Amino acid sequence: MALSRKLLLLFAGLVAAVTPARAAEFYTEDLRIPMAEAGPQGLEAFLVRPAGGKRYPLALLSHGSPRSFDDRASMSAHKYYGIALEYARRGFAALIVMRRGYGTSPGGRADSVGGCAKAAYLPAAAVAVADLRAAIDAMARRADVTTSGMIAAGHSAGGLATIALTAQAPPGLVVAINFAGGRGSRDDDDVCNPDGLVQAFTAFGKTSRVPTLWIYATNDSYFGPELARRFHDGFRAGGGNATFIAAPAYGDDGHYLYSVAGRPQWTPYVDAFLREPGLLGRDILSPPDSLPPPRQLNEAARGEFARYLASMLPHKAFAVSPNGGYGWRAGRITADDAQRDSLAACMKWSPTCTLYAIDDHLAGPSQTTSTDQSARAR
């Protein structure tokens, strides 16, 4: 039975059969990946893994590229925490690495494809692969991560980079996952030099032999079904090992299927693919335990605490006062920043505030701040 047929059969069963086995704690760490081309600052990265003391196989996660160059600066590895957590729940050390020119990673237009009509995808992919290899090298030196049995997954431009990585697969890479992979989309159903992009995938297939999973939603506005099939067919024609999933339409734009909101739809495909070579155990760790709301919060404030718990943007913190005032902030650069900002927000409600939660954990009892301020605002 072909692998694609097995995946489709497994999919229906996994929706019902794969249930979280137990609650778990997760370890997170902000990192800078050393790389000469990135200068002293290195590449921005964020690691999420189970909190246990063993070495976890690496899941190397690669991001997309916005249509507007100016939007790259606002990108952050933290924004992919919810995605990374899904791999950590499955027993991997998930690393989100921001390639050169994205987020706080130096590099400018290092991965430029040039003019639209003659967009050159192979040189741009080579830049991305160099960044991913730097991340792998850094992880190989850690005591809590192993690159033996590692997987790679990427979305959009990161999907293209992931497939390019398999063309010169580093030791230890066992499978790769391509979510809506491609480059050069400048508007809906408008891709720069699409034939050149197909040729790039074909070139990767000539040397790629790692099993790969390709997932494209049928309503993807960046790389529509016909073009996505051309990518896949070219890769397979070169000898690449690929299973293609034409996923049902997702929301208004299937290009964003690979998201926190889309987890119920894409995780079963991934689980079926990882189970086939025995990379996924029977148990999937539960997300972090939901914290109880502070007792002094009224009903409306408890709703705000629920929003805090639902936020997938580390670092975050929730502060509360004895009279029910509160303040919380998410998406800060460090946990200290989140604590400071949430306390400041709370102190606009009340002169005395205490940190109640930091990220997904209850705060210690001594983290309190007092002030004479008493303005009422969150």
From TrEMBL:
<keyword id="KW-0378">Hydrolase</keyword>
<dbReference type="InterPro" id="IPR029058">
    <property type="entry name" value="AB_hydrolase_fold"/>
</dbReference>
<dbReference type="InterPro" id="IPR050261">
    <property type="entry name" value="FrsA_esterase"/>
</dbReference>
<feature type="signal peptide">
    <location>
        <begin position="1"/>
        <end position="23"/>
    </location>
</feature>
<keyword id="KW-0732">Signal</keyword>
<dbReference type="GO" id="GO:0052689">
    <property type="term" value="F:carboxylic ester hydrolase activity"/>
</dbReference>
<protein>
    <submittedName>
        <fullName>Dienelactone hydrolase</fullName>
    </submittedName>
</protein>
<dbReference type="InterPro" id="IPR022742">
    <property type="entry name" value="Hydrolase_4"/>
</dbReference>
<feature type="domain" description="Serine aminopeptidase S33">
    <location>
        <begin position="76"/>
        <end position="176"/>
    </location>
</feature>
<dbReference type="Pfam" id="PF12146">
    <property type="entry name" value="Hydrolase_4"/>
</dbReference>
